[in-house]
Amino acid sequence: MTSGPQALDERGRRAAIRLARARRLLRYGLELRAPWEYGATLATLPLLRLAPKGDGHPVLVFPGLTASDLSTRPLRRFLRGRWYVPYGWELGRNLGPRDGVFHACRERLRTIRRRHGRRVSLIGWSLGGIYARELAKEFPDDVRLVITLGTPFSHGPRASSAWHTYEQSTGHRIGAPDLLAPLASPPPVPTTSIYSRTDAIVPWRYSVERVDATHENVEVEASHLGIGVNALAWCAIADRLAQPEGTWTPFARTGARALLYPDPRRKSRG
């Protein structure tokens, strides 16, 4: 039987493990608020109808990992009410960049571009934001702007606690340089990263864009599973999309917005 300093060290190690597990459970519990976020969004629909209307240009929306167009239907319905022409990706569940998926995304973008004769705005939720960013890098003349929601572009999908699911569903070993190296570089079009510091799936630092004249961050209070149906995220999306083409300016945290949207430049407590 172990005694003395070794016993104390072992008890301390076990206590640290239990504490770490408790913290993980508490963090994941924050994701349970997603249905309430959507409920709050539905309750504020009269106010959301005051969000700026657009110019009718097309918007292509990509779902997150393991999700489908069903998950982005509420957002697309909202965008349609703001006078945009929203599209789902129409590739079923997002199981990662399997063979043929990115080619199909290219064709989807090209088809929408030809149909409207206008540049397309891209919105991606979580892993869907990776598609949006990479398409914008490949086809900058066809993309008007990019908006990501809780997307781990600075460290790749392994930044998400769902990385095991990602590796199993895509066959990609996360951490391979050929997969991760290009993800952090920003698209050559106006880009907004919307993220939450209380995201329990993707560490928020991995969704932070390097700020410059055409790239920015907008912080909201949201869960990872609920950020795509979050009222404040929708308002920020409407504001970004409504800018006249060629006249992009950063999101302004003025007036009431300063109370609703935290300053993404503030220092973290932890």
Can you tag this structure with a few keywords?
single chain; 270 residues; alpha/beta; 6-stranded parallel sheet; 10 helices
Order of strands in the sheet with the most strands?
A: 2-1-3-4-5-6
Binned, the helix content reads 25-40%
Cα radius of gyration in angstroms: 20 Å
And the CATH topology? Rossmann fold
Tally the helices.
10
Structural commentary:
The chain has about 270 residues and is of the alpha/beta class. The protein has one domain (about 35-260): Alpha/Beta hydrolase fold, catalytic domain (Rossmann fold), CATH 3.40.50.1820. The chain is about 40% helix and about 10% strand. It is built from ten helices and six strands. It has helices spanning about 5-30, 35-45, 45-50, 70-80, 100-115, 125-140, 165-170, 175-180, 230-240, 255-260, and strands spanning about 60, 85-90, 120-125, 145-150, 190-195, 215-220. It has a six-stranded parallel beta sheet with strand order 2-1-3-4-5-6, sandwiched between helices. The chain starts with a helix and ends in a 10-residue tail after the last helix.
Quick structural gist:
With 270 residues, the chain is of the alpha/beta class.
Topology, element by element:
Layout: H1 5-29, H2 34-43, H3 45-48, E1 58-62, H4 69-81, E2 85-88, H5 101-116, E3 120-125, H6 127-138, E4 143-149, H7 163-170, H8 177-180, E5 191-195, E6 215-219, H9 231-241, H10 257-260
